[in-house]
Design goal:
By secondary structure, this protein is of the alpha/beta class. The chain has 16 helices and twelve strands. Helix 5 runs parallel beside helix 16 and helix 13 packs across helix 14.
Length: 382
């Protein structure tokens, strides 16, 4: 299978599976427990039908909109994700350049494999930083200060990782950061020589946003579960979130909201946006899908805070359904991670080209010329 054979996100997933060692692929693809929530994140969109209008005069359309005060060419954010240079040697640099080429918001993680400073200087496109709150308060302050200096546009505080979900695929494979060659996984790495040579011979693995304070998780192999359970602060409260917002002083988003009550609290502490998200189904299996929770959250706080539907997006029509249900925009991680793993920057650009085409085609077939025209009258639940 070649990059030109990829015509949708599912195709990129297949190509990524061909090119990655199975422990690495399973880290991207896997989720918590029985992976029911991960599956529901996408299947929830199947419960809703789009209602088109014909003869609407859609010769010229404009899919752009404003997200947190910055213009985005599409109603889509490339969500921050960790460890990207493990999946492809170009890592976050490839995603940043692709996002800039398409005029999109994108984010990097506290566990990014490229530094805040490099990303800040690399591209001018709007950038968010996904902050994991560590027990080491000095590390938290350091990352916030570095984001200020690098002129990031938003800090996105992840609120659903005070303990790690049970990622059984990673438990079976022994996946660690950085990847560790074990007897059970050695053959998997050996039969993917292109990946193995890139990993061994190119830039040494590092987590440069942590390495000023943390050794475990940078050069020392540790599982993601152990990292979350030992390094992150389980005592976080709403007061913690409000204090981080005040220290940061810029656009502030909470990622991991799936209830109307928590959305209301986000408004009360002065957050600018929420990402309705369950961490890609990687934390609490059996929790609600973002699209399932979206309408009640919109009813509770719509118009008071920007609402981003994060997770499960695999098609341009999923983006249109999220907007119709009341989200200000949509976002996703796996939708570009599969493409990154399959072919680096070229893969991400092809994936974004396909999603852009699907969004624009869908708008025309729906009879709308701007994203703002999508509302619940354009949707029907089965």
């Amino acid at each position: 299978m070649r990059l030109t054979d990829c015509h949708n996100i599912a195709d990129f997933r297949r190509l990524a599976k061909q090119r990655l060692p199975w422990p690495v692929f399973d880290y991207i693809d896997g989720a918590a427990d029985d992976e029911l929530t991960k599956a529901r994140n996408t299947s929830a969109f199947d419960e809703c039908d789009l209602v088109p209008e014909v003869l609407a005069g859609v010769g010229a359309i404009d899919p752009s909109l404003s997200i947190l005060g910055r213009r985005s060419a599409l109603p889509l954010i490339l969500s921050p994700t960790a460890l990207q240079r493990v999946f492809h040697w170009q890592g976050e640099r490839a995603v940043a350049r692709a996002a800039e080429k398409f005029g999109l918001w994108f984010g990097i993680s506290s566990l990014a494999t490229v530094s805040i400073e490099e990303i800040g200087s690399l591209v001018s496109t709007p950038k968010m930083f996904q902050l994991y709150v560590h027990k080491d308060k000095g590390l938290n302050r350091s990352m916030i200060a570095r984001c200020k200096a690098a002129k990031f546009d938003c800090i996105t505080l992840t609120v659903d990782t005070i303990v790690s979900g049970k990622r059984e695929r990673c438990m079976r494979s022994g996946f660690t950061s950085p990847p560790k060659f074990t007897p059970s996984s050695a053959l998997s790495y050996a039969i993917k020589p292109r990946w193995a040579l890139d990993y061994v011979l190119r830039e040494k693995f590092a987590l440069p946003n942590l390495d000023t304070h943390v050794s475990a998780g940078t050069g020392e192999a540790v599982s993601i579960a152990d990292y979350f359970n030992t390094m992150l602060d389980p005592t976080m409260t709403w007061a913690t979130a409000e204090a981080i917002r005040q220290e940061w002083g810029g656009s502030f988003c909470l990622k991991g909201i799936v209830s109307a009550r928590d959305a209301r609290r986000a408004v009360e502490i002065g957050a600018d946006a929420i990402m309705v998200s369950n961490h890609g189904g990687r934390q609490l299996d059996g929790s609600r899908a973002p699209f399932d929770a979206l309408r009640e959250i919109v009813d509770a706080v719509g118009g008071e805070i920007e609402i981003i539907c994060d997770g499960g997006i695999r098609r341009g029509t999923h983006v249109l359904k999220a907007l119709g249900a009341g989200a200000d925009c949509a976002s996703g991680g796996r939708l570009y991670l599969y493409a990154l793993a399959a072919a680096g920057q070229a893969g991400v650009e092809r994936a974004l080209t396909l999603l852009k085409d699907e969004i624009e085609r869908g708008m025309k077939l729906m009879g709308v010329t701007t994203p703002q025209q999508l509302d619940r009258e354009r949707l029907r639940w089965r």
